């Protein structure tokens, strides 16, 4: 380089391709020492909404900023937060209200542009020229994961199969009351070595089908169990919200489904699923008068099934659970009484002598919607209920605390599943085989 020339700033993100639950490192070099800069992330969702995050930094004596090591002194996150450019994302100013960032097509990556700007900037990024930028791809599927549509025995769902000869442990993935077919968690679980089948059991914005009950989920369980690449005696149930009630009901009442372990996130044992899910939802609807609203007119539904009934017949008898159970609980859950339910579950299981099967992970300021690591908090969003009625629902959670809860709980969930579904050493070997090579 000729004497007197000023090198151009250089921004790198490594790895530039990786799983969504994998950390990356953002480094900017060739800056003047002591320069104030802003690191900015921008993502355009599949709904064509823009999400952003930013942090304010000062370059060190070598003219370098490392997001993994340096402190953000302002912006959408503060402190040393290696992944703050992802988990603190929010819709850009002027966006539609009630947005939730969810991946629809898991066969394509989430693309995020990371840019560096001169000065400590908080707005107007589109009107400014970046000093440097780099694009990063965040995937839910490692190369070789197969996605298979399931339309069999009246069950609708999607199966994700890891690469390799198998057989693999299986997971039946059960989402909540929002309905539809949400695939991204199952795709990510397959990337960690599990055959995962996500099941659709509630239509979007329509009435609950009268023929959906425990037998529907038993059929789905058998389909997964009978797959030639699934180890039939190593199957877990993974439930979120209403999916927790389904998972607990199956573990206690089913004569055909015998899960090896349960992962229950933000749910309750108060709702028992047997003959008809529609009847259960109708019973809950009778308590609509218990709905609360905050100052912003956002709906709070957690009181609809409170108080916790003392009558054992009015809740799932978790004292009969015979397999390990992991509860994930957000202390600021404004949608479901998960904290109160966890306390009662622990009491019932202790009285029944099976509390040794229970592991509870509680996060005081986390909300209802636990996502894979580094996803932005959805504190409130538009919920489309039956008959296409929209409600602006409060899910709860504080941004920083919820982000750290998602990262910690996901690590513990994978460890729990590995412990109870994989044989010794099998999971570590498989994970090494599945690591992304850096090219697609």
Could you walk me through the main structural features you see in this protein, from its secondary elements to its overall organization?
- By secondary structure, the chain is of the alpha/beta class.
- It folds into 2 domains: 11-139, Acyl-CoA thioester hydrolase/BAAT N-terminal domain (Immunoglobulin-like), CATH 2.60.40; 146-434, Alpha/Beta hydrolase fold, catalytic domain (Rossmann fold), CATH 3.40.50.1820.
- The protein has helices at residues 84-87, 184-190, 214-225, 242-253, 277-285, 338-352, 399-421, 426-434; strands spanning 10-14, 17-19, 25-29, 36-44, 50-58, 65-66, 90-91, 110-118, 132-139, 146-152, 155-161, 168-174, 195-200, 230-240, 261-265, 292-293, 299-300, 325-330, 358-363, 380-384, 390-394.
- The strands form 5 sheets. An 8-stranded mixed beta sheet has the order 10-11-13-12-14-15-18-19, sandwiched between helices. Strands 2-9-8-4-5-7 form a 6-stranded mixed beta sheet.
- Strand 20 and strand 21 form a beta hairpin.
- The model is unreliable at 427-440 (pLDDT under 50).
TL;DR of this structure?
Helices cover 21% and strands 28% of the residues. With 440 residues, it is of the alpha/beta class.
By CATH, the topology of the largest domain is Rossmann fold
Instruction: Determine the fraction of residues in helical runs and give it as a percent range.
Output: 10-25%
Q: What's the CATH first level of the largest domain?
A: Alpha Beta
Question: If helices are DSSP runs of H or I spanning 4 or more residues, what is the number of helices?
Answer: 8
The number of distinct structural domains comes to 2
The strand order across the widest sheet is 10-11-13-12-14-15-18-19
First CA to last CA: what distance? 35 Å
Largest sheet: 8 strands, mixed
Shape: globular
Proportion of beta-strand residues: 25-35%
């Amino acid at each position: 380089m000729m004497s007197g020339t000023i090198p151009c700033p250089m921004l790198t993100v490594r790895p530039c391709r990786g799983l969504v639950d994998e950390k990356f490192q953002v480094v900017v070099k060739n800056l003047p020492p002591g320069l104030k800069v802003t690191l900015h992330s921008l993502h355009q969702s599949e709904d064509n909404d823009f999400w952003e995050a930013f942090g304010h930094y000062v370059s060190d004596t070598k003219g370098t900023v490392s997001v993994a090591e340096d402190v953000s002194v302002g912006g959408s996150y503060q402190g040393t937060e290696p992944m703050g450019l992802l988990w603190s994302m929010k819709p850009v100013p002027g966006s539609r209200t009630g947005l939730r960032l969810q991946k629809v097509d898991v066969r394509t990556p989430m693309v995020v542009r990371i840019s560096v700007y001169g000065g400590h900037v908080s707005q107007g990024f589109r009107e400014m020229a970046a000093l440097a930028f780099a694009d990063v791809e965040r995937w839910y599927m490692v190369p070789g994961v197969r996605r298979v549509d399931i339309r069999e025995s009246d069950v609708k769902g999607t199966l994700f199969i890891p690469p390799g000869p198998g057989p693999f442990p299986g997971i039946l993935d059960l989402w909540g009351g929002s309905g539809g077919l949400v695939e991204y968690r199952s795709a990510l679980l397959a990337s960690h070595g599990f055959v995962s089948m996500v099941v659709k059991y509630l239509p979007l914005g329509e009435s609950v089908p009268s023929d959906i009950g425990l037998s529907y989920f038993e059929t789905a369980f058998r389909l997964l169990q009978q797959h030639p690449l699934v180890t039939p005696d190593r199957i877990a149930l993974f439930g979120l919200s209403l999916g927790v009630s389904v998972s607990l009901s199956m573990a206690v009442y089913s004569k055909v489904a015998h899960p090896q372990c349960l992962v229950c996130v933000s749910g309750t044992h108060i709702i028992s699923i047997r003959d008809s899910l529609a009847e259960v939802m109708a019973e809950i609807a009778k308590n609509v008068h218990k709905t609360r609203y905050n100052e912003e007119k956002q709906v709070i539904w957690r009181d609809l099934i409170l108080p916790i009934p003392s009558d054992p017949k009015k809740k799932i008898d978790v004292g009969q659970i015979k397999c390990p159970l992991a509860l994930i609980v957000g202390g600021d859950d404004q949608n479901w009484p998960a904290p109160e339910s966890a306390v009662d579950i622990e009491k019932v299981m202790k009285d029944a002598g099976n509390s040794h099967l229970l592991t509870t992970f509680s996060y005081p300021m986390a909300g209802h919607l636990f996502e894979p690591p580094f996803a932005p908090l959805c504190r409130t969003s538009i919920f489309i209920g039956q008959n296409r009625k929209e409600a602006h629902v409060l899910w709860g959670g504080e941004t920083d605390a919820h982000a750290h809860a998602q990262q910690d709980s996901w690590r513990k969930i994978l460890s729990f599943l590995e412990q109870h579904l994989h044989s010794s050493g099998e999971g570590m070997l498989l994970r090494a085989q599945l690591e992304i090579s850096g090219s697609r």
